[in-house]
Amino acid sequence: MALSKKQGVVVGVTAAAIAAIVAVGAVVALNQPAAATAADSTPKPTKSAAKISADSVPWVEGDVVPKAVEALKKSGFTPVEPGKLTVAVGAFVPPLSYVPDGKTLPAGTEPNIGSLIAQGLGLKYNPVVVAWADWPLGIQSGKYDLITSNVTVTEARKELLDFASYRQDLLGFYVKSDSRITKIEKAADISGLKIVVGSGTNQEQVLLKWNDELKTAGKAPADLQYYDDNAAATLALQSGRVDAVFGPNAAYAWAARETGATKLVGIVPGGWPQAAAIAAGTAKGNGLIEPVNIVLNELIANGKYAQVLKGWGLDSEGVTTSEINPPGLPKS
Known about the structure:
D-Maltodextrin-Binding Protein, domain 2; 2 domains; five-stranded mixed sheet; three-stranded parallel sheet; Solute-binding_3/MltF_N
């Protein structure tokens, strides 16, 4: 995606570096704690929750975190607008970030996390909806203080940004809620199954590798199915023409929560075979990331963080601690 021509070139940021920052993490790229691999810390399969609409998910309010406020004062960080935390967010689809019908402010996990961070720092939350390609320059140039928009930590991005992790980037296997399939965790589990997957995606590479393992073992590989849109894939799953769908967990988790028609039976790290975290990002060395990290860990400790994820059906992507600049996906 091309960077916005309206953005000025940031001094000291090369075109190659910016390209590296933008490249990873499409709208629903979408992260297991840093040092994990595909076999580590796999969440348990879950049954679908009752039907729910996006409008019924409550917005979680937070409190000031004195320790974070004190750290912010000592950091020397100056917000874009005095008394406010200007946070870049996307406007895509539930559960991550979207603008509800008739509303002007974004909702979803990412805006709510941004709001809780602002409240913890004792600042007014000032969300700004931005295009995916525009946020790196916006953060670097000081147009935005922070981004909470499903950003994956990568080694390339860490050269220019500081991060505080708050979610795992995961890929999920989903089946019909009444399916006899109870788990998909390794190559043997997909033998003979028809699985919907996106062409040219990391999840396709997972299945192709597993199919190679099955063929070497003399077992039937999975039959990979490709659809142009989610509606067609969903219809194929519900009609029994395919056994499972495999893709970004966040989107499928919300669909399961919203409709009750599917259930999670397996998780794979989003950067398979490596994993990285979803994190809040800010300009490197500006002093903001330490206070943000303090707020995030307080939110984890007091249960507010869990409330946000539970409301949107993303419990499986939760973390037990926020890390500053955890290991990210390697440079390509």
